[in-house]
Structures
1.
Amino acid sequence: MGNGIAAALLLSAAALAGCGAEPAPAPPPPTPAGGAPAAPAAYPLDTCPVSGEKLGSMGDPVVVKHGDVEVRLCCRGCLKAFDADPAKYAAMVTAARK
């Protein structure tokens, strides 16, 4: 009977040994049929939707979001106009994607 108790203790200890282990990492996102992960869509505009200036002509573009639409402005000076009607400028980006 001593062997049965020892075996039960050994099995219990083995089962508990994994309790403090780190969880397994999440699996990678699925890839398209080609095998490579899908690249984010390129930004569709070369110019600021507020001023019409070329993006990058005044330094790095200012990136803002309206809902799930990223809008890039040529400079911080365009933020006031964007904030006054963000849906208008997000719609311009959305239309350019089509």
2.
Amino acid sequence: MTLTLMCGLSFSGKSTLAARLAEGLPASVISLDLINEVNRALRS
């Protein structure tokens, strides 16, 4: 298994690049933004 991390400035296209890579590879995208959003909702 390989883990690839995308790092960069806000609005630099990290999510777009990750989604495009996942389309062409046997891969899944795990969004830290989504994890944090769900975590905040659970704490409310």
3.
Amino acid sequence: MAGCGLVKAYGGVRFMVNVVAEMAGSVWQVVSAEGQAVTEGDELLILESMKMEIPVLATCSGVVRSLPVAEGEAVAEGHVLAIIEP
């Protein structure tokens, strides 16, 4: 799985998928919420870069476990925008 981070939990191992910014910009709108079930391709948030709105989509189906960004926040390429538990 591309963009996966490994998280250890209570002696077991589970995978979380990190959704990252493909370019620098600012978070224009957060569309999803923590705890929300998403399907691959669902819109999670919208970035603004060079006066363009760029949708950020779920790279896998699962539950959004974290949205470590806020509207208006500047992000760099590679910045983690969402974490999904498949």
